[in-house]
Amino acid sequence: MKLKTITVLLTAGLLGTAVVAISNDDKPATVNVTKKGWVSLFDGKTLNGWHAYNKPGTVTNWTAKDGILACVGSEHESTNGDIVTDKEYGNFELTWDWQIGKGSNSGVMYHVVEDAKYPYTFTTGPEYQLIDEVGWDGKLEDWQKAGCDYAMHLPNDKKKLKPVGEWNTSKIVFNKGHVEHWLNGAKILEFEAWSPEWSKKKTTGKWKDDPDYGMAKKGRIALQAHGGKIAFKNIKIMELAD
């Protein structure tokens, strides 16, 4: 099989500079888009429709080429290299294919409020966690693993994560407070935003000091640069009725 490879040069903190590759030779899981109303959020060759969170100017830490949107270098949240959609979304179905790098960390946020008073996308936006939970250097809590509603809700036993280097397909459904996370064709969790259970998790856990976390009913979609490498493709959204 003909191989297609994107080589990415990134700086990994104190570990120095390493050359890593994101391959496109594995046949990705596909989304069966049969309903009307689906819109692509990535044209496969430019960053049109995206911009750096809370930063003006050209995006330099993400590349768009050959149908793949890749983060080309991030060290930690202090660098804040996330990108967000130009448009805001309320109720939606969002699907994407993703490929994580060894020991890397990322995520997809929604309902992100872009304002200088919020230093990071995750200050307001709930996150579908993407991470190399096998090759991560250190202990991960269950709420930090792939597919989680980060620091809030855990996946069920239907979660089947593909190995590093292979493409996974994920989906988020947000419909009037009802939220679903899907991974490789299986629904791995669901919950009701703003319910008493949700509020208890928020106020007693990681977000207890972030009063605006998860409260917006509309906001931007964010792709996180949070350490290492991540690649996305086939990013599509269908807006649902309010």
Could you characterize the architecture of this molecule?
It holds the Pfam family 3keto-disac_hyd. The chain has 242 residues and is mainly beta. 4% of the residues lie in helices and 38% in strands. It has one helix spanning 196-204; strands at residues 5-11, 17-23, 38-40, 50-52, 62-65, 68-71, 83-89, 92-100, 105-112, 127-131, 168-175, 178-183, 186-192, 219-223, 230-239. The radius of gyration is 17 Å and the shape is globular. The chain starts with a strand and ends with a strand. Residues 1-34 have low confidence and may be disordered.
Keywords:
242 residues; mainly beta; eight-stranded antiparallel β-sheet; five-stranded antiparallel β-sheet; 1 helix; globular; DUF1080 domain-containing protein
Structure, briefly:
Residues 1-23 form the signal peptide. The protein is mainly beta and 242 residues long.
